Please model this.
Amino acid sequence: MVNRRPLIAGNWKMFKTCQEAVDAAIQISVLVADVVSDVDVMVAPTFTALALVSDKLEDSPVLVGGQNLYWEKEGAYTGQISADMLVSAGCKCVIIGHSERRQYFNETDETVNKKIKAAISAGLVPVFCVGETESEREAAKTFSVLDKQVQKGLEAFSPDDLKSLVVAYEPVWAIGTGKTATSEQAREVHSYLRVLLDRSFGADLAASIRILYGGSVKPDNVSELMSMEDIDGALVGGASLDPETFSKIVHFK
Ligand code: PGA
Model:
């Protein structure tokens, strides 16, 4: 059996000024220092705070990630940030295809695919988000929606390209709503995602990819979620903003 190291990632979305982000990152690095030998920890501040936070975390194993990128290397693309720019700001990872980007900023499976490619070329770990909406779940379309997101998002990659890939299953109806998928609902989807990965990229890659759960993860539900087979970590939004709360999630064991 492959040993997948748990990853707990905090997505700070459009919260925290530079100073607030630096303060929170420093507190987190201290609070989680006793478990980082067993758990990978990542924080994703806003673009403006990335370089400062990376600088402060230079001697800490806590990883810094971007929340998005643009796939071109450089050019006249006002307001965009490239993969190399994230690397130069100290990022090791990047969240791609978050449902808020799909919902509000025209992110499609095709743009997600280009972004994952750019991330991999720059040596960033892509945290590739997928998930169904409430109406899709009610219409029993969860698996077909995920099928499409995974097929198109990962189109034309080889298993070798995807060695560092992390997948995050985030049911849209559970994000920021306080409604968490039950551990059984999450387990069912995670197992399905692993089957999809196996079908497209083979058993070895499928067994090694970490699949995170995201959607109202809190200190009081993380342990049960993490006890499920195929759940290898969490992508945490609201509960990652407070260092003490996020640290409790990182200490899920
Ligand atoms: P939430 O957000 O934990 O606030 O539900 C999760 C996410 O959007 O990644």
Q: What stands out?
A: The longest strand covers residues 125-130. The chain has one domain: 7-250. Strands lie at 7-11, 40-44, 63-66, 93-96, 125-130, 166-169, 210-214, 233-236. The pocket of 2-phosphoglycolic acid is lined by residues 11, 170, 175-176, 214-217, 235-239 (CB under 6 Å).
